[in-house]
Amino acid sequence: PQTIYLKDYTPFGYTVEEVHLTFDLAPSATRVTSRIRFAPTPEAVDKTFFLHGENLSLISAKIDGEAVKPNPTDQGLTCDVPNVPFTWEAEVQIDPAANTALEGLYQSNGMYCTQCEAEGFRKITYYPDRPDVMSVFTVRINGPHPVLLSNGNPVASGDGWAEWHDPWPKPAYLFALVAGELVAHRDTFETMEGRKVDLALHVRAGDEGKCAFGMQALKDSMKWDEDVYGRAYDLDVFNIVAVDDFNMGAMENKGLNIFNASAVLASPETSTDSNFERIEAIIAHEYFHNWTGNRITCRDWFQLCLKEGLTVFRDSQFTADMRSEPVKRISDVIVLRAHQFPEDQGPLAHPVRPESFQEINNFYTATVYEKGAEVIRMLKTLVGDAGYKTALDLYFERHDGDAATIEDWLAVFEEATGRDLTQFKRWYSQAGTPRVAVSDSFEDGTYTLSFAQHTPPSSATPDPQAQVIPIAVGLLSPDGDEVMPTQILELTQDSQSFSFPGLSAKPVPSILRGCSAPVELEHTPDNAFLLAHDTDPFNRWEAARNLAKASLLGTITGGTAPDGGWLDGVAGLLSDDTLDPAYRGYVFAMPGQSQLAADLHQAGTTPDPDAIWAASEVHRKALADRMADVLPDLYARHQVDAPYAPDAAQAGQRALGNTVLSLLSLLDGGDAAQAQFDGATNMTQQLAALAYLIRAGRGDAALAQFEAQWKHDRLVMDKWFGLQVIEADPDDAADTAKALTLHPDFNWKNPNRFRATLGTFSGHHAGFHAKDGSGYTLLADWLIKLDPVNPQTTARMCSAFQTWRRYDAIRQSMIGKELERIAAAPNLSRDTTEMITRIRE
Ligand code: DPP
Ligand code: ZN
């Protein structure tokens, strides 16, 4: 496959003044007629008239009404065109029914829908399918469906047709079309500019009862973006459509967001509290893209973080405002460390702004999204809230309507704040997680903290340079009072010291408060002290986590018993009713097993997945034993009597209640879990109880009951598939997953079901890494089978192998063979080829 480089960027030689599209829908023979007004750009160097196109049957092409014969190329066509403005007309035929890759126009349960980001529009018609080509679209849809939707505002409609016009110039990746038998949940919103917007959430019949929450989340997002960023919505309608077959979570098409059903449909009976929170965040994310992504888009796909990092940052601010800031920060950091750090530290490492790719779909990564958001968070920390606001206002003012770059983004910060961001820009250009070593000293009342930063080299960044690292630090006195509230230290050199005079005793430092930078600390803090006294909720949680980690690693490598300090500290916090229950739930949560494997590897020890599993079990049991006396009362006190609400307060109660139940189940053989399962009135209670019953070895009856109850509900059944896999013992996980693939409801072409089963399996650390290699073979078999059907989802799941070099020689050799087997599959997609090649490097 061909490699595309950022440095090779050249503008398209033509502007697109307007686009008219007509769709005559038919499952296997949809006709797409385009009429596009092009004008040569006088200053353009490259005047090649190249239009992208894939899997299109060209029926006719005309320029200014005269038939022409374009020259086909392997990725589109070229054509001789006049050196003055002209009208291009083409008619193509496509086959949505055969489109299993779910890119371009495809069908899901008989409904037509599209996914064009990043490069799906070229599967719909010939077009300069690149984000810097923006135009105004008018779309006519002819089809016998009651609902016919496209971007922008409705113009007119009649029996079997509808016409849409989007006044906002946009790149083709934001194009969308939906046609089907859908029911709408409607509402309205009045913007701060006084525009009345008709809102609709379109779903399959039967899903009407799962719309109210998503609609409220949309209205909350619209209001929040006005209040916090001063951004109002800009069309007369905002449509959201729920689709069962979808590769990603959701898509921000202008005025017509398309959502994976799992990312929008919610009801208390069928969705957990976590589902509700995730849905609220994704609705916000896609809505916020209207300004950060759509009004200001990306010049090229290397700039993906321009819209994604910023929009993830914005949605995390929103969730923090709607719920709890510390809890949101903790959960974001858990995700960052679980997904982005391994990427940054393995063969898939790439900068937040990559410099080359073969398949752009492979770069919708934790690095672009999550690290991209962290970079913006650091920028805000460095320039302050007021500086950030001035810079963002300038960004919107200056770049509205543009396809922009990271250089544009940083320039507004430099101009608005006077700060030189030359060094800061390395966060966009260098791969790798910086490691920061900490040492300290105390003399004559002056405390000195010294930092040394070091980023391990990688093939993406062979020679990393020092980064600008904002380190939030507070100091506590030996008796636990805060003697210095949080200050931001700016680490810019390889090594640097900071002094704090006027102290009467050597303080205890609390470093990297709020995880102020996406780095790893090399430092042994006084965790027990910080767990008891830190005023920063993030670092207090971090202290608990560090204690748990040290204790687990001791058990794994030295067979030591769980640490009493950790048990005392966590037991104390769990029972401390002055603390937010949701926060306490996180204090209990132990480091993930894959995370422990990473820690061991970093410390020079080869991780043994079975030993990690066993140590985690021993620790859970030790905590349950330690708290045996208080658990029943703690459980009783965190039951919610009020009618179910998916808000943070109730969710926190249930989260803590379920955490306690997980411990109780280790002591009572699952009796309390059975009682909760039998009496459950919402999915949060039901699913947690089911998990603990499976763990207690008595899940069969409950699983059967659950299946009978929910057989008709695809999203709930995804949970049923996933839960059995993730709760299986390591020895059984592969067999469990394999058996589930034989279940009549295992529709492997549905990405949600595939991920629920095989994706969940690859996240079962000890099961996936089973000694006999059965886990590797199972996943490889399925990836080889899925690749010809859906390359994007296949390639994404290859990342399960990215950490393979951590493990022992036998496991590495088994994984190596599976990677080789995948690589050798006939006609392997560009997507999967690129992923496997990079992982094997
Ligand atoms: N739909 C994906 C997202 O919103 C890609 N833009 O992140
Ligand atoms: Zn996004």
What does this 3D model show about the protein?
Residues 44-174 form the Aminopeptidase N-like N-terminal domain. Helix 1 packs across helix 2 and helix 15 (648-668) runs parallel beside helix 17. The protein folds into four domains: 4-259, Immunoglobulin-like (Sandwich); 298-429, Neutral Protease, domain 2, CATH 1.10.390.10; 448-538, Sandwich (Immunoglobulin-like), CATH 2.60.40.1840; 711-841, Peptidase M1, alanyl aminopeptidase, C-terminal domain (Zincin-like fold), CATH 1.25.50.10. The longest helix is centred in the middle third of the chain and has 34 residues, at 366-399. It is an alpha+beta fold. The protein starts with a strand and ends with a helix. The chain contains 26 helices and 31 strands. Helix 1 links the parallel strand 18 and strand 19 (237-243). 41% of the residues lie in helices and 21% in strands. It binds diaminopropanoic acid and zinc ion. Residues 117, 248, 250-252, 285-286, 289, 308 line the site of diaminopropanoic acid (DPP). The site of diaminopropanoic acid has 9 residues, from strand 20 and helix 2.
